[in-house]
Each structure stands twice: as C-alpha cells, then as structure tokens.
Specification:
The protein is an all-alpha fold. The protein contains six helices and no strands.
Length: 119
C-alpha cells in the first residue's frame, strides 16, 4: 500500500498560496476519508461510487476552474492539486472529474443555451 501523502522532495508546498494549500488539504482529507478506505473494494467489484458525485460537487471538485454559477474559479495550480490528490487514490475518479470539468462543463458554459446552463 502506498503512503497516504506524497513526499515533497522539492519543497513545492512552500511555493503554493494559502488558497492552493487549503484546496489541496481539503481534497486530500476528503480522499483519505471517502475514497482510500473503499477503493480496493470498488475496484474488485467493478463499482463506480456514484454516491460521491454530489459530494464532489459540494466540495467544488467539479468545475473548479470556472467562476460562473457559483463555482470557485480556482487557478490552474489549485485545479492540478485537486487532480493530483484524486489520482493518488484512483485514476478513474480523477478521470471522471477532469472529463466532467473540461469536456462536459466547459462546452456547456461556452456554447450551451441558457436553459442548459441553468440545469
């Protein structure tokens, strides 16, 4: 089993803003509590944890770089840190978040009808 936290050999943490560290730490804590204890079981049973989707939304893990519709408008480093923490637990969940954010939400924000955006 891998260590729950990544080793910061280059002291990158010192280069992060307070907001970026807060985003990373919040995501890390959530991943440790809500994903790590269950991921092996989900993998062996071929289960995608749909019950986590609403939690990911409430934590602003979905759509993090956008500021429209109450989203946080995080910078690309904070968004990368979210993805790094998700990837630490499971590539599938990280893929889900990045695909929803970039291939689903972005086109809707840019080219969707107002009705579609309001959903």
């Amino acid at each position: 089993m891998f260590s729950q936290h990544t080793l910061d050999l280059y002291d990158i943490d010192a280069l992060l803003t307070d907001e970026q560290r807060m985003v990373r730490n919040t995501t890390r804590s959530w991943v440790d509590d809500r994903i790590m204890p269950f991921i092996e079981d989900w993998a062996w049973n071929e289960k995608f944890p749909r019950e986590l989707i609403n939690e990911m939304g409430r934590l602003d893990l979905l759509g993090a770089p956008y500021s429209e519709y109450g989203l946080p408008g995080l910078d690309s480093i904070a968004y990368g840190l979210i993805n790094q923490e998700l990837e630490r637990a499971d590539s599938g969940l990280r893929s889900f978040v990045s695909v929803q954010t970039s291939l689903v939400m972005y086109p809707i924000l840019q080219w969707g009808s107002q009705e579609h955006k309001d959903r």
